[in-house]
What does this fold into?
Amino acid sequence: MSGTRLREPARESAEARPPAARTGRLSAYGERYGLVLLLAGVIAFFSVLPASSTAFTSTANVQSVLASIAVVSVLAVAAVFPLACGQFDFSVAATSLVSSIVCAATMSNHDALLPVAVVCGVGAGVLVGLVNAVLVALLRLNAFVITIGTATLLPGLVQWYTRGVDIVRGVSQPLRDFGSLTWLGLPRVIWLVALITAVCWFTLTHTAFGRRLHAVGSNASAARLVGIPVTALTFGALVTSGGLAGVAGVILTARNGGGLVNSGADLLFPALAAVFLGATAIDPGRYNVLGAVVGTLFVAVSVSGLTLAGAAEWVPAVFNGAALIIAVAVSTLLARRRGGPLAGARQSNR
It folds into this structure.
């Protein structure tokens, strides 16, 4: 009897809830998980489409798609940190290229052990992030212009150092195996991506650093008035972005089996498309790590399905561009509906 009495108020409360409130809750769930449902729909569509069903659902294709998103996912997560505090970092892809070349060259040209090469590769990314941080956070230069300049400069330096020749000799076999083999049926690199995603998600959602980054992105002036160190947080976000791009570069070396001079830099727009798509999901209107990874997977699965269905070569490029434009529009509208511009759509700490 007592159990029945305890349940009655809850049932009555649910029945008494206004239809508008229930509709609003459904709408909120739709916004939060819409991209996930869309991803499931894309998977279902290409799984039953006669032109792609057999190859699309094969184990080889699933492993290929997951392996292919490893670098882009880490780059997307890297871009989330500066965007969360109102800054752009367009140099993440070029930074991963430099890190890949440094990692490969350390082994090939200097006979260094794998751990040393990995540290050097990640360190190169941190160094680029540090330069960006000094110019943007300390000297207060425009992040949009500075990081585009960095993204243009770095591939040129790579061409100068390598003379346009890929570095594949002397690269550690265990590193190659890490980039090409599987573990428990999944690509080894995807396990590292999962770990990075979990750590970064926790950092941005459950630590003071993450909450303060979002506060700076929402309103830097108000954040400064309440004592939040805007400059230090911006500095830290850009250095973190560079470090994660460095990790992406090491993964790129593992995936390519060496340092390829023309790889990495072309991953910027897929990463940005994933980040902006991610801002429409999980935590709509705000850049977030889980949304960015879902966005990466959505783009990769869609492109894989289109390719296997026999789409023309120009279709994936058009899809990536359209996804980026639509994602920016939708994420910005969602943020405005919640009372302010999307963090990162402006230089908010000036």
About this structure: The domain at 34-337 is CATH 1.10.3470 (ABC transporter involved in vitamin B12 uptake, BtuC). The longest strand covers residues 182-183.
